[in-house]
């Protein structure tokens, strides 16, 4: 998942302040690497005054552009906007890190107060009539024909962004939209804080040695450490995060405990308590629908998709339903195989959601003689990180060197200088925050602390990857599952998208592309995890240091399509609920009832639940970013499956010529070109859904 830290429209991250401020958050980033955040100086009490000061500074900068008495030109309007908000961008970046990685009871009230104010500032900019008139004048001017290709693209993107945000609305409607945006900002914050509270404060205790039955040693160790962290007297505890729950559901042989852990996880935000998110979701959906209507759209989904590759909900729905049918059919096959094992074990129950992972692992062993726990012994987090660096070097000529002269916000965070191997020049910095902890939201994501640019001086980018792996005992390697390893490569793909950016203007840089395209660079990188070069050199046994044996490599390859039905149904069910919720218009929606009814209409397999149930669906209810956009993972999956075949049709995953095209047209070009055009430049044609069907082992769509 790619996360833009609390995005504010038309923001830049260059730094020019000269005087030192008493509030360290307001100071420019200093030091090497183009300057870095001074995490050793910041305090929570600094955030509110820093944000308020920086917001006012940005508004003044925008007013200066809007009130310029000279005719609007590219330089005095569009390029000038690329320079505003430098202070706010820096403050907002650190604020976003605290929100996602270091949240606390002291930070929550600040976040609740500031989010609506920040939304109001964004609206004041996009609703500034004089400013939009100048942007529109440049957009329609004859001067535009003399601009460079990238400058023309920037004019179009800025103009389209303002129109999308409501710049053409009348004054009365703008006021209504802004009020809705501020209300929504407060609700998003409350939703996120509720979810974080349930994840931080709920757990299932393991009270006897029998409760550990079936768990591999590293999970036993992690459960014991988690109990200590929560100051429990019990032997162990399963935390309410995906990285803790899914391994337990895979290996625990205690069916009663599996159900208890599963229910804890899938009921986050849905427990009828002070943290219940259902009423908040109802309000969010209503406000979004009202806003879309004011914007002139039939629904929130129609508004959100108007600036994507899909263009409208109908195109996205068609793709999802085309894949849904073969995925559901595959689930039936998978469940039949599992049920057969239950019967062989003399079990008298039908497979339930808390059984799926446990019995899928048994089927994997029976069908392919492949034990994921055996595979896991070769998947050391540190070694896989080295493998990712090596892949980045082979594909994009990058090298990563750990540095120790950069302040970090938490002791487990490490920082790497990223260099171009050929020229040994600085590309940027990569921060890595791998472990779960209290105050950190669950899941995995990428952030961009500073966007690459060079129109106003060369500014290197700063990106981060954030995960929630369970930290082991001191001195012990952290072993992760194959799925977690895939996620690790996925998020690193987002980071590389930011690091490889090579454009002039920050608005067009890195990951600032269409929502249903941004997951393409990340998802395609997952393919390199399973390449022999990575597995033989970086999948090393945590005790012996020996590489993964050929026999095990062969088994992994043969089982590559295993459980594809489950994974696809889990994903698409979430995407379908997201899209259907946001095409309902202004109806009042009961989230739980809507989820049950809609899934029944879709013939959702009873053995599976959505990857993200509605009350905990942070992608779509913690901000607007992925709302009516969760389908983008599937949309990007089609593109990345097709794109990876460009390598397999050539000389293989490390084909230099194909890699050069991938870098030129995808990873380095940002939003300087329409994404459909960019993909055709890389591939020579549009992506075909057939590639996705082949990658999953599904029958072809007719």
Radius of gyration: 25 Å
Classify the secondary structure makeup into a structural class. alpha+beta
Number of helices: 27
Mean pLDDT: 95
Instruction: Identify low-pLDDT runs.
Output: 4-18
Multimeric state: single chain
Strand ordering within the main sheet:
3-4-5-7-6
Roughly how many Å apart are the termini?
31 Å
Cofactor: Zn(2+)
Domain Oligopeptidase A N-terminal: 55-173
EC number: 3.4.24.70
Domain Peptidase M3A/M3B catalytic: 248-697
What can you tell me about this protein's structure?
The chain is α+β, with helices and mostly antiparallel strands and 702 residues long. The chain has a domain at 202-266. It is 53% helix and 7% strand. The protein has helices at 47-66, 74-81, 86-101, 108-126, 129-140, 149-164, 171-201, 217-229, 242-251, 255-266, 278-295, 300-304, 313-344, 353-368, 372-376, 381-396, 482-499, 519-525, 532-538, 550-558, 564-581, 591-601, 618-621, 632-648, 656-667, 675-683, 689-696, and strands at residues 203-206, 236-239, 398-403, 414-420, 426-435, 445-450, 461-469. It has a 5-stranded mixed beta sheet with strand order 3-4-5-7-6, with helices on both faces. Helix 9 (242-251) runs antiparallel to helix 10. The longest helix has 32 residues, at 313-344. The two termini are 31 Å apart. Mean pLDDT is 95; it is low at 4-18.
